[in-house]
Amino acid sequence: MGLCEVRIIYHPVPLFGEINMNSDFRVINKKFPKIEAIEKVTGRLKYSGDYLFPGTLHVKILRSPHAHANIVSIDTSKALELEGVEAVITHEDVPKHPTMHQFLFIPNVMYYDSFLLENKVRHFGDRVAAVAAVTPEIAEQALELIEVEYEELPSILDMRENFSADAPKIHTNAWRGDTPIIVENNVVDEQEKVYGNMEQGFAEADMVIERTYRTSRPNPAPLERTVVTCVPNTAGGIDIYGTTQSIHAMRKNIAASLDIPLSKMNCHWTYLGGSFGAHIHTGWIEPICAFLALKTGKPVRGEKSREEMFLAYGRHPMEVTVKTGVKNDGTFTAMDVEVIDDTGAYAFSGGSKMKLTAGFCLSMYRCPNKRVKGTTVYTNTPPLCAMRGAGNPQAHWAVETLVDEIADKLDIDPVELRIKNHIGEGETFYGQSTDVICDIVSCGTEELMRQGAEAIGWSSRNNKETGSPYIKRGIGMARGFHTSGAGSSTPSNYIMDYAGAIVKMNEDGTAVLLNASADAGGGNRSGYAAMIAEELGIDYEEVILPDADTNTTLFDVPTHASRGNYGTGLAVVEATKKLKKTLLGWAAQILEIPVDDLVCKDKRIYSTKDEQKTISLVDLLDKSQARCLGSPVGEASIRPSSCPPHFVVCFVEVHVDTRTGRVEVVNAVSGADVGTPINRNSVESQISGGMHMGIGYALMEDTFFDEKSGRLLNPGFLDYKLLTFADMPSVKPIIADITEPTGPFGAKGVGEGVTNPVTAAVGNAIFNAVGVRLTDLPMTPERVLAAIEKKKNGSNAAGGVN
Amino acid sequence: MKTFDYHEPATAAEVCQCLKEFGEGAHVIAGGTDLIIQMKRGRVAPKHLISINNIHELNKIEAGPEGIRIGTTVLLSALVDDQDINNDIPMIARAAYTVGSTQVRNLATVGGNICNAAPSADMAPALVALDSILTIVGSNGRRELPISDFFMGPGSVALEHDEILTSIFVPKPQENTRMVYLKHGPRQAMDCSVTGVSLALHVDPQTQTCNNVRLVLGAVAPTPVRAIQAEQMIDGHRVDEIEFSAVGSTAARESSPISDVRSSAEYRLEMVSVLTVKALETLLQGV
Fold it and tell me: Is the CB of residue A700 less than 8 Å away from at least one CB of chain B?
């Protein structure tokens, strides 16, 4: 009721929208505010950094001024003498035990290549030592008193340099599972898979075209910075309040990294202020704070500065070479993809992005002969991670740019070439690497392509003129998909996916969900409330979602791979069904009618045979409590057996200034096949947010390093360019009218797909406007202008600029 | 950030006194949009911060028959909104509008933008193009200085340690003066200039001849620079005989940009030329 009053004050336009399409649903497939919306906009909601404890020590990390160096000596004595400093730790003080960062991979393929602190630094800003002091200022002052002698080593900043014989060795030893491995040539991982006969495929082609594309290194840039507070408890363990995409995975990571019993730690759930992959892994600051909390017996808090956020995360830069054979009628005969992938100085995500890129390339277009080959290497740059799309934005940039060029060369409409060849219903999808596979049972691609083309004015794309003779107009498109989780028909040998939920009902008919799934702002938690309300016939506001912890929830893998709605949703629905079964069973006893005749509706249980035979939930709960029937509860822990792709299309209109090279996206249409939209507000927000990240990736988001020192040159929002509101076009969202048979209420994912095709759509629109194709991201004014001038001077337009 | 003492003197003279007394450890603060960031990063660590925000006479815009006097702590957002500035020297309002965001402009001051002396500062080329005169007060008294003599290099200006800039006088341009400030950055807002070009000129309504030309380039040299040779290709010439692209290339030759994280030097050179041509189109062809 408080919610209603506040809503009237804050929202002159009600957030609850009209029923759309599938009107059988009472709650879902409509527009409703997130459960935490009012708390968020009024500042009352607690993020990880808002948990404060008396007597907390503050941690600061001493960071390397070199890209690659051995630590010859460290003297911490002066720092320890500073008043207010309670602990200083270096590599000499920490467990000699490899640290685990991403409990998501199957344990026997988990890659270990680091320790909490080491006597070697591998990138500018790498961890050297940690100080815990009574204030952050004293901790910072203490850092200046630590004396370190470094022996500088030659470094590699560009992944291609690894392929020279005398390349310096960044790592020499690592472990895969329990097995020690020798790292050669800084190669973290490699794979090659062949489907069909490549030679025959290329022989059958009328045209063979090969291009190399390079992607940049953007930062996920969540608004919330990483904070962790580790609080020793009376039982000899620690309570942890951290910024993570999975409290259970974080607990596993910290326990493994410090080699202490899992049950000693309890990780608390909090909302995230954005994530985009940044918090899929646990970095070092969390186990360092846990270690210092155990050492000092005091609460210890670590908080990353924005610069440290830039030194901790980023999307893998890749070089993707695609060679395609195609017949004159637009039939593909062979597709050969080779990927070189940079994982940074530590393999948090390791070769996983390269493997995902391979699977996604296989899932784009029908072609009987395909080969995917990839190599992941280290560089002396900050470690990289998953970032919205996890290997798929790179795959889309390469394949969707090349397919557009093929359409142009064959004089086939790019929309029609894609409709002819795209992989859809009845075909195989590789959701997370080539080892996570499902059969596609729903696909709204064609519907979205037709509607999108209509909405952008596709037929007007030959009109290049704007009001200015120097500014040319173009329309481009690209399509694609992302997975919904990492479920597979048989459990993957590579990546885990399972979820758990406990749903109980209070005596007043409200329901409570105990679940660990992270909500980074995507609204999946509100989705669970809607699913529970829908299933039980109660109001959305009557579902309570406490901020639980690892002690009270079932294991749930990180909220990643657009799996929140789908994977965890399946567990939530299953648990709710169990709860409902108990309620119906009790109602059958009390009403003395067969349980099969009963349904939940409008907070009551009705007989489907005779609507007069009914009991309210509250009445039922009173009576069952008096009879001591127990507490109504359902639980489920489920491994999804599919990873249905949510398909997307992207159409953009651009203005290209031929004198400055500046590209402005002036209009955008984004279509998504998300199955049943659980909350249309959230789906539309994911679409516009995904377009924002996609256009940023296309035009400006990137990080740069000093060629000599390896120093990050733009570690903040002054020179790391995200699109502002003023730079965003209006985005028209289109949601396909599709149901996914395997999904909760027919839902699939939505979070990542929208971003994937945006770069290629923008690049294809630039080609439409001015006739040049770029191969490297981002398409900065400087690169676009260089390509335009190269074309003017008569060089081959294709190939773009480097 | 290191701890510091904070002072709020009531007059400019007291500010100079404080600066003299506290020496090198003292730093003036107005909007703080540059300084606080530098302090948080540990690049500067003043022991004394001397606020000039409470000195009312430094915060006024006064329009007179000779020109407009702008106090040093006038907010950029005030420049954007001021009626006299928009009427007489609209380029100043426009340059102010291109800085940062609404939030930044509501804190940042015109004096801060000048005294911080970032090569990319947007106010500098516009104020130089209008022959602005700075009033500087120090413990030894008051002096006036043409703004073109003020900038020494990145972050360096012609102020003694105990001196502060108190106001900027912008002479009223003669009738039929046209002016424009153009800025190039990757975004619509929130960008430091990759290149900024300020062009002011007078067009004789009878002869259609240009004179009193000022072409000032920003972010392409250690300080804002006048492209004197390019100016000469406009000055004394009839509107229809000026070769825009030749003026642009000459202006580019008069700049000396560096490569940095925002742009390569080559691209900046090209943008000097492009923005110069665009400025000429804007003022002489109404494009």
Answer: yes
